[in-house]
Write a structure and sequence with these properties.
Helices cover 18% and strands 37% of the residues. It is of the alpha+beta class and 290 residues long. It folds into two domains: 121 residues, Rossmann fold, CATH 3.40.50.10330; 136 residues, Probable inorganic polyphosphate/atp-NAD kinase, domain 2 (Tumour Suppressor Smad4, Sandwich), CATH 2.60.200.30. The strands form three sheets. It has a six-stranded antiparallel beta sheet, with helices on one face. It has a six-stranded antiparallel beta sheet with strand order 13-12-11-8-15-16, with no helix packed on it. It has a five-stranded parallel beta sheet with strand order 2-1-3-4-5, sandwiched between helices. A hairpin with a 2-residue loop joins strand 9 and strand 10.
């Protein structure tokens, strides 16, 4: 580490609204930071007051206590204003999180000494277009998915890269993933794992039928167009949020986002590979009651 970074002075500590078990730990973190003269505030991720203060750029650090889902939602909130996120893992996997529930105090001590670094992770922007009209746009840290939704029939997707036809998919769907998302849905669909600091979009078909069945890694800066064909009953989902219905000839355009998610990291960048190998072959559902 070549230089010490600024010490955060005003810190938000957030927990997922469906994880009440995270609140005692968040309270302990607040008390620890306040005991060292810092301004610390705890709230739920869906708390209107907390969200307003983040959007007003009142905090210089956001600590997300929970699992990957908590960090994912935190990124949607913090990335537009550039607030860095420190995740403390209470979940089962934690691909996005470096600090465990037992290590938070040491992590806070390193923060107060400026011994950390910031990792920027690419986000992608998806826009839903019908004819010449934009029906909405969203940013994703993991992936944008166009899929068959509730229908049992595959969707027909005409896919272009930088305005030129790549291929026509007949499949359950198509994932357009960030490098961060390469360890999420894209990995489950058979895609490769990409280093998180890359800025490439990854295309992974879901259960393709007589179509290209390999993932495609696009050049940095490329954009993707996904057009619905043959009256397919498709839906659009962004980072697992509520699906949006798509009509025939609708277009979903995906490109690099307007901003990046910023994460607080400790030690050397090799943490990603250590974290990754620690999770592989450790499916948390194996042996658990259903």
């Amino acid at each position: 580490m070549s230089a010490l970074l600024p010490i955060p002075r005003c810190i938000a500590i957030a927990t997922h609204p469906t994880m009440p078990a995270a609140i005692p730990l968040a309270t302990s973190i607040v008390e620890y930071l306040q005991g060292r003269g810092l301004s610390a505030f705890h709230g739920l991720l869906d708390d209107a007051s907390l969200r307003k203060r983040v959007k007003n750029n009142e905090f210089d650090l956001f600590i997300a206590v929970g699992g990957d889902g908590t960090v994912l939602r935190s990124a949607h909130l913090c990335a537009p204003v550039g607030v860095p996120i420190l995740g403390v893992n209470l979940g089962r996997l934690g691909f996005l999180i470096q600090v465990s529930r037992d290590d938070w105090q040491g992590a806070c001590d390193n923060l107060l000494k400026g011994e950390y670094w910031i990792e920027n992770r690419m986000m992608i922007r998806a826009e839903h277009r019908r004819s010449d009209e934009s029906l909405g746009s969203w940013h994703a840290l993991n992936e944008v998915v166009v899929s068959r939704g509730a229908s049992v029939h595959p969707v027909h997707l005409s896919t272009s890269v930088d305005g030129m036809l790549l291929t026509n998919y007949v499949a359950d769907g198509l994932i357009a993933s960030t490098p961060t998302g390469s360890t999420a849905y894209a990995l489950a669909a058979g895609g490769p794992i990409l280093p998180p600091t890359l800025r490439n979009i990854l295309l992974v078909p879901i259960a393709p039928h007589l179509s290209v069945d390999r993932a495609v890694v696009l050049s940095e800066g490329s954009s993707v167009g996904i057009t619905i064909r043959d009256n397919s009953e498709a839906v659009l989902s962004v980072d697992g949020q509520i699906p949006v219905g798509l009509a025939d000839n609708d277009l979903v355009e995906v490109r690099a986002g307007d901003y990046a998610a910023r994460f607080v990291r400790f030690g050397d960048p090799g943490y990603f590979y250590r974290n990754l190998t620690g999770h592989m072959n450790q499916n948390p559902s194996i042996g658990m009651p259903r």
